[in-house]
Design goal:
The protein is built from seven helices and 14 strands. By secondary structure, the chain is an alpha+beta fold. A hairpin with a 3-residue loop joins strand 2 and strand 3. Helix 1 runs antiparallel to helix 2 and helix 6 packs across helix 7. The protein binds heme C. Heme C binds next to helix 2, helix 3, helix 6 and helix 7.
Length: 389
């Protein structure tokens, strides 16, 4: 029995590219031989299944295990690690539609192993959705916000979702006064609902004569974020955040405020029909020393819509951001900017993303120039920089 199973998998693998039929035959063989399930005659039998439990049992369980933790090597005959669907910290992060895509197109869709077969020919999208919804119930702790809320990151508006990410976000001021400023952001998820963020501004500025550039470090920020409310049926998520900006930057050259600034805020996102979304942020900047910096109120909103290339391919997300701010002390004017931008998923896994846009001053445009903004984002929980292409 075992040797035949192994032979079948190896012979399938020898084809180089595993066909749906080949792998499905393997899966059905595993289902019928290695577990206590009744044998199935042909993949066509799958077409009559309707419940997630039945579909999982007949098409997925042989590899993923009845408990969703992954069947043992002795049963599957291959050593590729299987995901543990009971582990919420992993299983809650992916949106249902994305997992349906993997089950439909096979592991290589997101740069995973070919041992995860493509079921698109054997099962309908509705059946695969039922199977994925069944898989998602293996995580039984409702504290983990769903991956549906992991929306494309706008250039300026903060995300309500909590993540494990590294981002380099850059801005280039044009024209004339040449400043290239960057923020290196490291985000680490803390348990089900919280996140820690470290933000280090670094940049280069051209001197007046224009013949050399000098490097600078700005005010380093430490932030904590916590999800207060999330409801995927309503499509809403609300988080509270608090950032502490430390006076590490050189205030004389404009790269620091020379005082500690506390930045409390609220982040709210709403999922809209047809893969559209609204992400909003509202907060304050409260300096410890009011002689060094002004108290400010800031608000940001990003409206976008994700468009996926056919068959769960690359995602393009045009976003329009509107950002505003107002000084609270000196009866300062209110400033508004708009930031049209495009977010693109670069890797197949979609864990490496690029966003580019322009920040256009709407009010008070005289002294402020348009800025070119862009970032590279790496969701490091989903794989290394080389994985998933
Ligand atoms: C022949 C064995 C096999 C069968 C049958 C199988 N899977 Fe998988 N599946 C795998 C392997 C192996 C992986 C891990 C791939 C990797 O990490 O490179 C995987 C990964 C996955 C993932 C991706 C998890 C992640 O890391 O994001 C999903 C979702 C999934 N399987 C769903 C299903 C569903 C639904 C079915 C049934 C309709 C199914 N699988 C049937 C072997 C299988």
């Amino acid at each position: 029995m075992f040797s035949f199973r192994k032979f079948q998998i190896l012979s399938c693998a020898a084809l180089g590219q595993l066909t749906a039929v080949c792998i499905l035959a393997t899966a059905l063989f595993l289902a019928s031989s290695a577990s206590a399930q009744p044998a199935l005659g042909s993949p066509a039998d799958l077409s009559t299944l309707t419940t997630g439990a039945d579909i999982f049992q007949k098409a997925c369980q042989a590899c993923h295990g009845a408990d969703g933790r992954g069947a043992p090597l002795s049963q599957t005959g291959f050593s590729i690690p299987l995901p543990d669907f009971t582990e919420c910290s992993f299983a809650s992060r992916e949106a249902t539609g994305d997992w349906v895509g993997i089950a439909h197109q096979g592991g290589p869709l997101r740069g995973f192993s070919e041992m995860m077969p493509a079921f698109g020919k054997a099962l309908t999208k509705a059946q695969l959705t039922a199977a994925i919804e069944y898989i998602q119930k293996f995580c039984t702790d409702p504290a983990w916000p769903r991956g549906e809320f992991n929306l494309p990151r706008p250039l300026l508006t903060g995300k309500a979702f909590i993540e494990d990410e590294a981002i380099v976000t850059s801005s280039l001021t044009t024209p004339g006064n040449n400043v290239f400023s960057n923020k290196l952001i490291f985000e680490k998820r803390l348990g089900a609902r919280s996140e820690f963020e470290l933000l280090v501004p670094v940049g280069w500025e051209q001197n007046f004569t224009g013949d050399n550039w000098s490097g600078h470090i700005g005010d380093i920020g430490l932030e904590l974020k916590h999800v207060l409310y999330d409801n995927v049926a309503r499509g809403s998520i609300l988080s509270i955040s608090s950032e502490l900006a430390l006076p590490t930057g050189d205030a004389a050259s404009g790269w620091g405020k020379d005082t500690v600034i506390l930045e409390p805020g609220l982040l709210y996102a709403q999922l809209l029909p047809a893969d559209a979304f609204l992400q909003t942020q509202f907060g304050f900047e409260l300096p410890a020393d009011l002689n060094k910096a002004d108290r400010e109120m800031v608000w940001r909103a990003a409206f976008g819509k994700s468009i996926q290339e056919p068959n769960w391919g690359r995602t393009w997300t045009p976003i329009l951001e509107i950002v505003g701010g107002r000084e609270l002390d000196n009866a300062g004017t209110t400033q508004w900017d708009v930031v049209p931008q495009m977010n693109i998923s670069l890797s197949k896994r979609q864990h490496i993303q690029f966003n580019v846009g322009v920040r256009l001053p709407v009010t008070d445009a005289g002294p402020r120039s348009p800025e070119l903004l862009f970032y590279f984002l790496w969701d490091w929980f989903d794989g290394s920089l080389r994985d998933g292409w």
